[in-house]
Amino acid sequence: MAFEMKPFNNSLFDMSSSDMFKDFGRRFFADFPKQGMKTDIREVEDFYVVEAELPGIDKENINIEFNSGILTIEGQQSVDNEAKDENGKVIHSERSYNNIKRQFNFEHIDETGISANFDHGILNITLPKSNSETSSKHIEIQ
Fold first, then answer.
1. Is this model's pTM higher than 0.85 or not?
2. CA distance 93 to 132
3. Which fold has domain 35-139?
């Protein structure tokens, strides 16, 4: 028999303990935002290419770090919508703040040659391969 969601009764005494927690996870995680950073990683002979989708995020709000073989991509977005009537009174106001962060592990990268480009919401990072150990570097976006 397949799992079947059923509405809860108003009384805790009319349900069994299995009914109470049966779809707890589904209800709990359904409210989480389903957004993230969609990322593709390609390996070419001499380098890796990381392509991340960051729609709606300004270049100035993106931070890229490469530290001990870990590439970290962070983005912040804030939207403040405020509509006023002809008298200047606020009739509608909404705010939205999003922070996203992804990390990827790479070995044997030449951190001095890492480059990044951001165009139309797509971040492209090129990580050249090297035979030496990795250290730490902040990456500027072109």
1. no
2. 53
3. Immunoglobulin-like (2.60.40)
